[in-house]
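Re: pyridoxal-5'-phosphate structure - here you go.
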Amino acid sequence: MLDRNPNDLRAFWMPFTANRQFKQNPRMLVAAQDMHYTSHDGRQILDGTAGLWCCNAGHCRPQIVEAIQKSAAELDYAPAFQMGHPMAFELANTLVDMAPDGFDHVFFTNSGSESVDTALKIALAYHRARGEGSRTRLIGREKGYHGVGFGGISVGGLVNNRRVFGTLLNGVDHLPHTYLGDVNRWSKGQPEHGADLADELERMVALHGADTIAAVIVEPVAGSAGVILPPKGYLEKLRAITKKYGILLIFD
Ligand SMILES: Cc1ncc(COP(=O)(O)O)c(C=O)c1O
């Protein structure tokens, strides 16, 4: 047990943070409202990233706060194994109504990392259930960030998130990233150059055989690598090539 001092910062091991530096000069957020955080020393800070892209409706919106409070007071938890909760079914239906045609089932998870690992598992199990169990390869992309699970770091392409965790999943390959600073710098909206980078998938199909590839996973807009918009036509090309070879395309 650590000796506890008031405001002791030692026990909490912060993710993706230089812990020693942070704890020497902590930047604490103590409250939030709409698009601002309040810091421990009373400053208002504009939240330009909506939390970690997860507070897009604004912070502490009364409607959302009340809905969370009401829900917790009514039924704080119900198991999802062999038992159900009406609101989970209702939410799934609402999402399906909002989604494009063909998206007709919802699987709930607790985080982005779990979503990614689950999507990869669903892809593998889907092919197996259809009698194409040889499709086990997963293809990610350089500079990709897909969370912190073993699946996500395997298909991800950020070296510092990968290098100390051994050989990761077998049979993973990576498309080239689409950050073409020289030709696309100062683009407004989607950049003009780089759609042909999707053709690398053809090369991978030629190398590995389409019947060994289960899925390609990319962030349509790469987030953690620095908000890299897809070149015009790139995602459409990925869609066409994956469709041609019966490979699933996962957008994270
Ligand atoms: C594209 C993408 N995938 C996965 C994740 C992981 O999400 P989580 O931090 O909820 O596990 C993130 C998180 O920022 C992300 O940006």
